[in-house]
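Re: the 397-residue chain
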Amino acid sequence: MRSTVAIALLVLLGVHLSNATSYFTEEFSDAGWEGRWVLSKAKGAEQGAWKWTAGKFFNDEEVQKGIQTAQDARFYGISAKLDTPASNAEKPVIIQFQVKHEQKIDCGGGYVKVFGSDLSQTEMVGDTPYHIMFGPDICGSSTKRVHVIFNYKGVNHLIKKTIPCKDDELSHVYTLVLNPDQTYEVLIDLEKVESGSLEADWDMVPPKTILDPEAKKPSDWDDRRKIDDETDSKPADWDKPEFIPDADARKPEDWDDEVDGEWEPAQIPNPQYKGEWKARQIDNPKYKGEWEHPKIDNPAYSKDESLGVYTDLGAVGFDLWQVKAGSIFDNVYVGDSLAEAKAFAEKTWKVNKDGELKAKEAIEKKEREEREAAEAKRKAEEAAADEEEDDDEKDEL
């Protein structure tokens, strides 16, 4: 029997979800997705094709179908209009989607863009203005991060924090929460990985405070924690050469000084060498700590109540460049309830993730066994060929 507390929680959750607004959801669960999404034609022959598939490994093939980038070294552009334009002026906006880099991605985007409702879908390109860009970007070993970019007064601003992204071949869920109070959260696989304020974590407006340009560190400020002990002195026998002649070395009998030059024994490390002498360190009695540059109010700062507020989030799209194709995008959600977004991800992603992993491991095991069998066959054939060659040589004898 459920406890009273558990029942109360379920009731509260039900009420919360019933009050939630979902502006857009897409599971790509039926062939009708092609009627809901519009392909960009802006790049012509360089525009990559999309494939409707669950990929090479999955838990439930029909449930886990998404749209996959299908051609290497191509631009990808596809978008869909929201059922109702979203706004975070009074309620949060949650942007969530799932991506699986099945191709062991080496360089390519995996993010979603959110546009205004006036988006010209067939003309969508990288330079098309957008409100929000969110999701993973991978290129080599140096770039493996989650982009969170907001457009403010016509300029795109990247988050100052570094948020590592997932770079394996499994499906992962990325969630962005944008609140009316100019705060945000980023979740990966339903776990919060970053949060804060737009004012602090983006350079969209001047900072509240700046370093006082008139302040200078006092000339007598001593910030050395340790100093040399003046009573310490170098021992008389300290200085020894780092290398010495090898006492066991002998001049070769065939050494000719006129031809080979004057012979000298090889140098070997000196076991008595002690390195550079340094005085013993002691606490500095004059240490004042690290000097902190005082700050003052920034005269250029003024709070902008419109920062990060979007009243016309009308379309979502994947606008990407991929060197190596194979990323599968799925389960897109735009709404005003984090609880509903999590429930959507629980239903579409979490229930399948363990089975997906097992399917991947099964494929890898089969491929490994096939490689081992092929290698064993190759070695057996080589051994048989060697044996036949030996037999031929014996016959000739």
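The first strand starts at residue 22 and ends at 26.
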